[in-house]
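On clarity, I found the account of how folds are encoded harder to follow than it need be. For illustration, here is how one protein appears when written out as sequence plus structure tokens:

:::
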Amino acid sequence: MNSSSDYYEKRALVTGGSRGIGRAIVEQLIEDKFEVFYFSRTKGGEISHAHHIEVDFSHPDSIESGMKQFFELTQRVDVVVNNAGITKDNLIMRLTLEGWDEVMNVNLRAAFLVCKLVSRVMAKQHSGSIIN
């Protein structure tokens, strides 16, 4: 899908937007006339009128690459929703340090990196909202 900036007044980026709550957010933003971009590891089911960018949130390089692709498609971002997250449903006594690190890397570090990278553009625009 090509970016059609003449039609859309606002642009949104949703992390973890291929299913569940993230997909519902993407669909609502589309209904609200946003041009929507979403990051996820897999495309999931087709979402009409949305741009998918493949990102593995456990790898900072993948996040940076996804942000680069995003800003090649649009130079503006009005709303960012950091929705991507994983869980390791387990008792704390059974949770490994590696499992804990994986959860923290996806749920916290990825959100931090996205915020850091979009904040520069939002500062130049003098506008934008980040929802964590």
The chain is about 40% helix and 20% strand.
